[in-house]
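Recall that a protein's primary structure is simply its ordered list of amino acids. Everything else, from secondary elements to tertiary packing, is in principle encoded there. The following example makes that idea concrete.
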Amino acid sequence: MLEFLSQNLLWWHWIIFGILLITTEIFIGTFFMLGLGVAAILVGSVDGIYPVHLEIELLLWMLFSLISIFIWFKYLKDTTEEKSGQSDYALDAQGSVEESIVANGRGKVKFDTPVLGNTEWHATAKQDIPTGRRVKIVQIKGQLIEVETL
């Protein structure tokens, strides 16, 4: 079997294999297959420029795949997934007051970026904050966010 593949596996087979892996990524959505597909396309490109044996092609594919997985987890994976649900999540988020907040009462704040999946939140503060003022998050208490003015 290895002999057959070694003689009949051409550079464009790797390219098609890579395109198929990238296409399956559309349905999976984990970005894991994307790295494997890009690695297969790279192997096909190397084999097209400089023909190598099947064993070297497989080693190159494994190497390129590992590099792509490393790059994904080191640089591209969203870090907010790790912080979601923690008490210090999004403490740097800023927004503006939509409904005025009376001291130790409730109002409504619209944040510039989503906080735990939502841009509008009921908020409380230790001092009165009129409508339109810019605020930042001090603490998240369940479904209520404590804010203070900037």
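The mean pLDDT is 85. The CA atoms of residues 6 and 55 lie 8 Å apart.
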